[in-house]
Amino acid sequence: MLTSKVALVAGGTRGAGRGIATELGAAGATVYVTGRTTREQQSEYGRPETIEETAELVTKAGGQGIAVRVDHLVPAEVEALVDRIRAEQGRLDILVNDIWGGEYMVEWDTPVWEHNLEKGLRMLRLAIDTHLITAHHALGLMIERPGGLLVEVTDGTAEYNAENYRLSPFYDLAKSAAIRMAWAHGKDLAPRGGTSVAITPGWMRSEIMLEEFGVTEANWRDACQGHPHFVISESPRFVGRAVAALAADPDKARWNRQSLSSGQLAQVYGFDDLDGSRPDCWRYLREVQDRDLPADAAGYR
């Protein structure tokens, strides 16, 4: 499927980035995995996951994983990364912009005048500046061959985010900005043979989410006792399969500039999550959770 393709998953240490990198590897791609946490050096997160672990998962899945420590707020480091990809591979077919790093900075249900300003502005830099810096340096290489794909990973579809406040002015802006960036980049990429989309997972069982709920991937349903709507959640590999399916589609340009979800693409491409289910989170949120109906995923997975 993707055996001759080269991908860069920027922000692949954990969560959606790790799931996407792994599934691109499962499809046979060579995947450069970047982030700030290595086995020798942690980022401000203080989390245990590393880019080396993700690269090993890529290789184990059937691809070739290459870990490179990069701070995507430092243009020189991103430029050096792209120069390395050019020297080693001579091409870049897929750029996944999943750089984030703001989970511990969000002050939920807090208006802007009460929210810690330093944390809020740092969140925006991590979510917006990093993506623009990476696109600036990497897309020039990607467009040298037709058929390239840019994926801006976000939280929420354009429709859902337009209708719902995401409980923090900074978080709301950060996640809406990624959708708009995909739309804008698509304008520039299309005449050059490239495709740009925004993709959101649903309620994703990231390492941080599982830890906060006191469960593992193996027993995640136990968390539904305290958080009933968690029944619609999905593994990070589900959005990974969405990206891999999209990247392998010879007609991917039909999606250019669109806001997509893992559940939506599962219906089109016919893939399932690791447990064999096919969760449709954003439809569930609108039709069940947001209407204060009892948690029931029947018909939604």
From TrEMBL:
Pfam families: adh_short. NCBIfam families: PRK08303.1. This is SDR family NAD(P)-dependent oxidoreductase. It comes from Pelagibacterium lacus.
